[in-house]
Amino acid sequence: MAEKRKITLKDIARELKLSPSTVSRALNGYASLSEETIRQVKEYAEKHSYVPNALAVNFRKNRTSIIGLIVPEIVHHFFSTTISGALETAKKHGYHVLVAQSGDILSGEVFACRTMLGLGVDGLLISISNETVEGDHIQDFLEEGKPVVQFDKITDQLVTPKVVVDDFNGAYEAVNHLISEGYRKIAHLSGRMEVKNAHERFLGYKKAVEDHGLDFREDWVKNCSAISEQEGYDFTKQLMESANPPDAIFCITDLVALGAMNYLKSARYEVPGQVGLMGFSNWMLSEYTSPNLSSVDQHGFEMGQKATELLIELIKNHDLGDNETVVMKTDLMIRQSSLGK
Amino acid sequence: MAEKRKITLKDIARELKLSPSTVSRALNGYASLSEETIRQVKEYAEKHSYVPNALAVNFRKNRTSIIGLIVPEIVHHFFSTTISGALETAKKHGYHVLVAQSGDILSGEVFACRTMLGLGVDGLLISISNETVEGDHIQDFLEEGKPVVQFDKITDQLVTPKVVVDDFNGAYEAVNHLISEGYRKIAHLSGRMEVKNAHERFLGYKKAVEDHGLDFREDWVKNCSAISEQEGYDFTKQLMESANPPDAIFCITDLVALGAMNYLKSARYEVPGQVGLMGFSNWMLSEYTSPNLSSVDQHGFEMGQKATELLIELIKNHDLGDNETVVMKTDLMIRQSSLGK
DNA sequence: TTGAAAGCGATACCAT
DNA sequence: ATGGTATCGCTTTCAA
Fold first, then answer.
1. One GO molecular function term (chains A, B) (predicted)?
2. Which of residues 133-162 of A touch B (CB under 8 A)?
3. Which of A8, A239, B20, B22 is the most buried (most CB within 10 A)?
4. Cα–chain-centroid distance for residue B9?
């Protein structure tokens, strides 16, 4: 394994009969040096393709230019979109991104936080797991002076900047749309109410229903604790077979909506028409179902960008930030499944 | 910003009236130390929650425990699955993963390679871009003694271990299946032939067709250079409106197959029956289209795991590996779109 | 079994 | 404008 020994700053100094400090300054452009020296050093460095040892620089400067990014699950269209945005922004500012997934469980998140902190990331972007409540493991970053920005799935227990989607309003608009298309008996397949996003969407749903003087019925709200397609299928079956079947369903997520759609199709309901259907998240697949699934786009890419911008700014300012929350607008993606009754 | 000063190894040594070397040894379990000393040091370290400065350790040991991972596009079900597998395996072995996307263009890949090399990753996992030919930027890793493992999209120009999917056989089986279901006039929406995976799938398709004594017609093979849904739609239209319309289409990718399916549905062809359809990749969405799309599963997760295992082993053995290629089996996912004629 | 000390490579303070 | 040198925190010979 031929490993060519890399040239160091000291080597350059020795060869050029300069001091290491001078070479360092010439390369980094600090202080006052003669044009001639700078030229000479740069030329030599270029010629011998000198590359500073990042490990040494990081060590000395006590920073890594690495951002930690923790999401519940990478294999999830929304989160991968989010990551994509984060990568792009990080790259633009000369940062690298270390990615980890918590698997949506607390232990996974704690482990990821610990190892990232141990490695010395400069800051953390995190979308917390379903199980996270206290967040001491995240607090640890702040105590070491490393900024944290939460996004999408957040907790108010931690004082950090946050970037969230306007779940309430997104849900409100989605349900409004169903109503404007003529649906009147609107059910909601929700998530666990302890999860903030789920709760907000529920509240948006409820408000829209009430604002239009429609029935709000507890038994039209079903809790999908796993947010799975299966639950969408099962609860929809349950709703449609009940004494008071709804004529539209607003689902916490596209996946749940797919389950709902699959049941409705198998039971020969017309979608849209007999039953209107709305998802949330605008997964890629919603464009391709039949009928196409109407949904609410969360702009994951922009969200990742925004969170990363905030974080990098904090890192640069040696600031931990405060409790500010950036709320990203959603976009109603009207396709077929929600069209006129 | 209250930043509590972290305790160092020297601090422990001073407090315990030991030398730094002893403390280091006690903590790392090397050499022969008295039980008592070890206990004492560990206890003190624990009590003051000592965490070794990773930057210093990395610098000293000249390694980072970070693996670089470059894929064309994160927002792509197959690649995110792959990443997920890589993360899992890396975690198991105490490694971190720095993720970057090339955007499927050469310049993006070169940039990612450079920054990762500059940062000092211990090794590289890469699925190359469509534009990559020479691969000097990847060769740079090898020249610095850092192992590289290529996966999925690879080039034979570089002598590194590779993990690929058995595209040829996957395609062969897929087409066989269509034939066994009674289809006889099988077209292929292919990718660019310079891309190895695309070429292999084409060859598998061709072999299956020929092995059964069916017609192989050049005009039934269409090149989707962008591998887009639109191309799937357009070429399918073109095929079906031609003088010799096929009765089945094997698509290079599920996305292309979706385009094909959308055209066929809009033109009122029966799928399956009148036209059989097979995709490749087994995207999540293929389960949810209507009809469900038959596809070929590439086991992305296992692929990410395998590539990462190989890489970590090389890193640990200070080995660059050779040209070995691990071929992962594919799985035929038979759903509705390819069923009997 | 333990200690002393020499670095790893780059930076930055203090001189000159 | 440039040099000398301590230093970051840890590991690892070499000695004792």
1. DNA-binding transcription factor activity
2. 143-145
3. A239
4. 40
